[in-house]
Amino acid sequence: MVGEEGAFVLGWEEVLTEEELSATLKASGTDFSLPGSLQVLCMSEEEFREYKEQDGWEEDSEEEGGSTLSNEALSRLKPPCKKLLYDSVLLTLESYGSDLKAEQDLLNNKEAYKSLSRREQQALHVRYGQKRILHQVLELVR
After folding, report:
1. Helices (H), the chain
2. pLDDT of residue 116
3. What CATH number labels 18-27+34-54+72-141?
4. Tell me: the pLDDT tens digits for 121-130?
5. Which of 88, 102, 112, 137 is the most buried (most CB within 10 A)?
6. Residue 115, pLDDT above cutoff 60
7. Are 29 and 36 in contact (CB under 8 A)?
8. Angle formed by the axes of helices 45-53 and 56-63, to 10°?
9. 81 has pLDDT over 70
10. What angle is formed at CA 69 by the lines to CA 17 and CA 86, rounded to 5 degrees?
11. How far apart are CA 39 and CA 21, in angstroms?
12. Residue 135 has pLDDT above 70, yes or no
């Protein structure tokens, strides 16, 4: 349902793989900006079966044309979807070998930072940026 890689790509201001995330969450128009869509992962088994039988997938994808999954939209998700995203972000953060503060401390320690190879420095910047985005999403869906 999420695609071959099974991942969502989050940016500073919006979800960069909005098609995958919107297909997964399918929030209703009252709590989210996607008109006429439904929550898929937050549905009961019976609701999901009915939605699938009515070919809801095709209808919704045509309606979603100009919508974006901005950070503001993420903060308006229904509680079950917020929990799903929150838990997913926590799992992702746990997969890192260190936390955000450890990365920040290393970046601020000029001596330790200089002892890293150029490649390690670049990797540090990437990890730090990724963790900052993930922490931002945690705050949005809290």
Report:
1. 18-25, 45-53, 56-63, 71-75, 79-94, 100-108, 110-114, 118-140
2. 96
3. 3.90.1420.10
4. 999 999 999 9
5. 137
6. yes
7. yes
8. 80
9. yes
10. 85
11. 11
12. yes
Amino acid at 10: L
> Residue with structure tokens 């979603």?
64
Query: What pLDDT is stored for residue 26 in this prediction?
Result: 56
In contact, 105 and 67? CB cutoff 8 Å: no
Give the residue among 62, 59, 56, 61 at the shortest CA–CA distance from 43. Answer: 56
Q: What is the largest CA-CA distance in the chain?
A: 62
pLDDT reported for residue 29: 34
Are the CB atoms for 10 and 22 separated by under 8 Å? Answer: no
Q: Where do the domains of the chain lie? A: 18-27+34-54+72-141
Q: Cα–Cα distance between 42 and 25 in angstroms, integer? A: 7
- Categorize the per-residue pLDDT at 24 as very low, low, confident or very high, splitting at 50, 70 and 90: low
Q: CA 29 to CA 33: how far, in whole Å?
A: 6
CA dihedral of residues 114, 115, 120, 125 (deg, nearest 10): -30
